[in-house]
Amino acid sequence: MSDPIDRLDQPRDQRRLGRRRNHDSDRFGIFAEGVARFMGTARFLFWMTLFVLVWVLWNIVAPTDWRFDEYPFIFLTLMLSLQASYAAPMIMLAQNRQEQRDRVLAEQDRQANTRAHADMEFLAREVASLRMNQGDMATRDFIRSELRSTVSDLSEEIQRLAPDDDTDNDTPASEDRPKS
Length: 180
Hints:
- Pfam families: DUF1003 (PF06210).
- The chain is mainly α and 180 residues long.
- Helix 1 crosses helix 3.
- The longest helix has 63 residues, at 74-136.
- It has helices spanning 25-39, 42-61, 74-136, 140-161.
- The protein contains 4 helices and no strands.
C-alpha cells in the first residue's frame, strides 16, 4: 500500500496543507450580487452599447496601423463571449442567494402567521368566555333601568300615601287630632 500522500482517491489531511486562507463565500456572493444588479440597469446597457460602438467605429475609421480587430470583429466577439461566460454564473449565484433569503423570509412569515393565528384563537376563546360570564352578571344598563324602575315605583307609592292636596288646607293638621 502506498503512502497516503501519493493516493489521489483520498483527500489530503488538512493539517498537512499548512495555513490556508479562509475564503468568505459571502464576500464573493455580495460581489456577484452587485455585478448582477449593475448588469440589470440601463446604465450598464448604455455603457456596453457605447463600448461596442467605440470598438466598431475605431476598427473601421482608425488608420490601418491602429486597428486591432478587423471586420468581422472576432476579438470583440471573444470579449463579449468572455463577459457573458462570467456574467451568467454571477447572475445565477445572485439568484440563488436571493432564493435563500426569500426562503428564510417565507419561513419567518409562516412562523409569524402561525403565532398570529394562535393569538387570534386565544383572543376569540377569551371573548367567548367573557360573553358567557357577562350573561350571568348584571350590566350597567340593566342596573340603571332597575334603579329607574324602583325610583318610579317609590314615587308612585309616596304619592299614594301622601294626603290629598284637594282637602282644605286652611285647617292646620293639629286640628284634625282629637283633643285629650
